[in-house]
Amino acid sequence: MAIDVICAACKTRFQVSDKFAGKQGPCPKCKAIITVPSKKDEVVIHAPEVSGPKDSKGMFVLKPLTRTEARLSQLNIGIIVGSVVLLLLVSLVLRIAYRKDLQMPAAAAQGTKGGPPKTKEGTPAATDKSSKEKAKPGETAPKMGITVPISLQIILALGAILLAPAVAFAGYTFLRNDELEPYRGTALYIRLLIISGAYPMMWGIYWALFGYFSDNFEGGPPLMALAMVVPLLILAGAFVAHTTFDIEYGTALLHCCMYLSATVLLRLIIGLPPHWTVWGT
């Protein structure tokens, strides 16, 4: 059995055979003469004895709690990576399938640049008299831009709901406090269900709010409105993550931003603007 030795000169820690117990010899590093401790000087630390009430057979009724180290298994890593790849492929398929529907009409594209459309010679094209007439009171001019099909709107809504539990689980796995026992089983599923309802609800409130006031602006929500509404929604979503997963509020903010970033990135891949507009969703 090896004996632990520490050199008093250079503080090097090493082990020697028990046959050298009580003998002297040079340190293998600094060559200083050291004395190997004898077996009786060695301190042996025993495991703590179990204490508590016993049954009629003399067996302990209570057993010490053992903590199982929660680590990200290869299966979980494979599921997360596979889900990311699947989402990217689905987004690309949607981009190809709805490519024509998401293209801005030529008239709208020219209207956004300012001025009437021009001919090849550079002169303004002829327009109808009706187009020159001003809108009558009570009437609103048609909004220019793309129109997202209803089928794609339904896919986006379902995607925002189905994406929430996957991102919530992945974010909790990476961001949780390692010193605390992680949630497992039913407790984890209930918390993922709460997050799966709260995070998509942020997009729902965002869409409903700007949809209600869409007549007050054109071309998408103004930056001032976005700067006021978006932080409030993120703070609310982070509060839900903070109370649900028992994580720090700063970590909960990062957890919430992970979901929002994932949804915005997928919208860009599909070919949609990152935020809701008056002509899109």
Task: Describe the protein in words.
About 9% of the residues have low confidence. The N and C termini lie far apart (73 Å). Among the domains are: 40 residues, no CATH class; 155 residues, no CATH class. α1 packs parallel to α7, α4 crosses α5 and α5 runs antiparallel to α6. By secondary structure, the chain is mainly α. It is built from 7 helices and 4 strands, in the order ββββααααααα. A two-stranded antiparallel sheet has the order 1-2.
Q: What is the fold's blueprint, element by element?
A:
Elements: E1 2-6, E2 13-17, E3 24-26, E4 33-35, H1 74-97, H2 106-113, H3 129-132, H4 150-175, H5 185-212, H6 223-245, H7 249-270
Antiparallel strand pairs: 1-2, 3-4
Helix pairs in contact: 1-7, 4-5, 4-7, 5-6, 6-7
- Subunit arrangement of the protein: single chain
The topology string of helices and strands comes to EEEEHHHHHHH
Portion in strands: 5-15%
Q: Main beta sheet, described?
A: 2 strands, antiparallel
Q: What general outline do the C-alpha atoms trace?
A: elongated
Number of helices: 7
Number of beta strands: 4
Average pLDDT confidence is: 75
Low-confidence stretches: 111-115, 125-144
Task: Write out the strand line-up for the largest beta sheet, numbering strands in chain order.
Answer: 1-2
Q: By helix and strand content, what is the structural category?
A: mainly alpha
Radius of gyration: 34 Å
Considering DSSP H and I runs of 4 or more, what fraction of the residues is helical?
A: 40-55%
What distance separates the N and C termini? 73 Å
